[in-house]
What does this fold into?
Amino acid sequence: MGHYAYRIEAAYDGATVAGYLKSRYGYSTRTLVKLKQQPDGLLQNGAHTRTVDILRAGDLLEVLRLEETDRPILPSRRKVEILYEDGDLLVYNKPPDMPVHTSCGHAQDTLENVHAAHCLQNGQAAGRLRALNRLDRDTSGCVLAAKNQWVASRLAGQFEKAYRALVVGEVRYDGRIEGRIWRPDPIDLRRTVDERGQAAYTEYGVLRHGNGHAYLQFRLLTGRTHQIRVHMAHIGYPVLGDPLYGEPSPLIGRQALHCWSLDFLHPASGERLRVTAPLPEDMQQAYNRTIGASPARKENPESPPADLELEREK
It folds into this structure.
């Protein structure tokens, strides 16, 4: 399993083990109870310690990495690219036509099943997938997963996502959409912009446009279900191939929406990480047949530009 190692700072001289872990790193009482039950769950300068013991500046506190497996998951033989992995977390490049989690209708065809197989290959139990961002079944791209509850709690809401999409219509200027998202019918999946809904804010930047389409990058300031799809349809530029908020397209068999990148601070090392997922083949082909085929395209039209940094919120 391995351990996290923390060197005690002067500011925490005299703190208890539990007090330090809770205030400095956000450990929960439940996690601390589990650590106490392990013979090497908590080590102070290499020796067993208790949660009530006192820490001194310069001490080395080691905390066991817990592997929690509360329900069995069937493994899948399907392969999914791993964009980044270490002992704490990993980032999958989820393909389209794959749900993230298992459900009644999807017992063995999800990213969670793929993750179970990956765990077994590494000598671990086939536990659940702690996905910190959830993509629709037909949205591709980065899915960040924590390997234990502590990492999950530290990263929850503490990372930034950038999406990319092909939309119908030539959007020419960057913009921001503010529109509350409402679900009129609890049985129907569709949402709409309505004052009765939850506040939702979407920023977008134009990467390229031409031939009746645009290639955009998005930054979400809120995380509502279907947010990009609802907002773009609302302003008259639906995501290409979106059967729910636009129309199916012969250019692509799903909505042309992709989680392009994730930015976050690693909860253990404090390192700033940025992970990107290249466009899947179906979106790349749709791009080539629309914007890439436009006579007004920019230089090097064969592939989309490497990146666009959207203006950060002031």
